[in-house]
Amino acid sequence: MAFPASFLDELTARNPIEDVVGQYVSLTRRGSNLFGLCPFHSEKTPSFSVAPDKGIYYCFGCHKGGGPVNFIMEIENLDYPDAVRFLAKRAGMEVPEDTEYRSTYRKQERLRALSKEAARFFRAQLFSPAGKEAQQYLLRRGVSSQTVARFGLGYAPDGWSSLLDTMQKSGYTKEELLDAGLVLQSKKGGYYDRFRNRLMFPIIDVRGNVIGFGGRVMDDSKPKYLNSPETIIFNKRKNLFALNVAKKSKAGMLILTEGYMDAIALHQYGFDCAVASLGTALTEEHAQLLAKYTQQVVLTYDGDEAGQNATRRAIPMLERAGLQVKILRMKGAKDPDEFLKKNGADAFRALLQKSENQAEYRLQSLKNKYDLHDDAQRVSFLREAAELISTFSTVVERDVYGRRAAEAAGVTPEAMKQEVSNAYRRRIAREKKRQERVDLDLNAQQQPKEKGIHYDNLRSAMAEEQLLAQVLKDPVLLPEVKLLPEQFSSPLLGRAFSLLLRCQQEGRPVSLASLEGDFTPEEMNHLSSVARRRDALISEQAISDCCNVIREAYGRSVRTGEDALRAMQQQFQHKKGYGG
């Protein structure tokens, strides 16, 4: 364990789970537990629970769980050591420096400081004689001085080592500049600036740290945008441009754009809820990040084919994150920046109010695929539209959009209603068969929900889960467990049991919160679900029954292994004798 156990125990004691979670979630007491709306996925009925006596949280909807450290890791998007430091600061504790994380943490802090210093350098260059072209470019694009200041825009001068030389004078090394993605190394071993003669956009995380940069050319040269590479402080799949500003918006939505300039233009025109992805397509991580700050996302991707394809890919990702998705269509402009300059804020606001929900958008996109004056294509459109509409969740939605499809194709609403009904029945039948296959597979039903965790011996694993749930509910029972960790069929559960034994031997709290540094967030999610088992009857007999099942399964596996080994030895001896 990287941090001293005594420090982690005190950290947990001084950060009660109900207090930590309560700063982010409105909780209501039900018996001994607290409940609220899950901060990790969108829901209307609270399924997020906090168990103060166990020091853990668990969501019965998305299955995330753990102790205070895991919660801060998830909610603040931090790694383990930074989450520990976050809670230590909250409790007024000093973090021990003799840990294996010290060098990594210091390196991260050093690179953040370097990135902030680089942003200041770029900003100074923008207002120097060297930045005259960049200033003129911003004037042509209509970017105000207030917007320049708000987003910390800057300019990378047209030199091979302008930033490199300045940062070295400030005490940073070439290797640090390379690690921060600010310089490149030539084949001959020399170093030179990555960003040259570009308008610079600092990328700032939700905590206000400069973690990377985007650089845009001011002419037609390629590449148009150049972004920082992945570093130990920058992951483009987990961050969004301008989210540090947009998260404070009271608009009740987030507007997702394709580019930095679109997001900046929207902010300048009063739409302070705009964000942009960082030179990459929307990812599942982006969707989860958005869901932490809003329940509704409006997509404003470009109207070209690439933009439409990006929209179609983004819709299901955002919906899986529990977000309500709307799509804004712009006529006479390729992007929000151009639309705002042509038509102004009021026109965009009106357009925003008329933005389509995903159902309208998908149906319209489907219409655009077909020539509805051709009978064969009309039939194809209606069949595909029926399949699409059959996936809509309510009868009302299916009726409304069925009528729209019928009107577009020139058929009666009754005919379309019948087609949708047939498609709906076919889909329900397919889903029923699929569910029947799942229901028949008891093993699949009881396997852990977390990907990457699998039980080879389900019967033993169920007993192991039951056993852990019991000792976590009443640690006094732990001495009654006469088992070795290696007798567990599940390596994860065996490791948890081993660490709980160690906690007891060292006089530490026997709790899941004591183990947070030893497991990944996914493993903690699963162990939290184990701890929340409601069928764990606390008794010495229940402990004994579980132990018997585990021993029996372990004995069979040992005998099976011995039989396999003997068979291999006999086969080897047979071959050896035959060869001799």
From TrEMBL:
It catalyses: ssDNA + n NTP = ssDNA/pppN(pN)n-1 hybrid + (n-1) diphosphate. Monomer. Interacts with DnaB. Contains an N-terminal zinc-binding domain, a central core domain that contains the primase activity, and a C-terminal DnaB-binding domain. Binds 1 zinc ion per monomer. A zinc finger (CHC2-type) spans 38-62. This is DNA primase. RNA polymerase that catalyzes the synthesis of short RNA molecules used as primers for DNA polymerase during DNA replication. It comes from Candidatus Avoscillospira stercoripullorum. GO terms for molecular function: DNA binding; DNA-directed RNA polymerase activity; zinc ion binding. PROSITE patterns: TOPRIM.
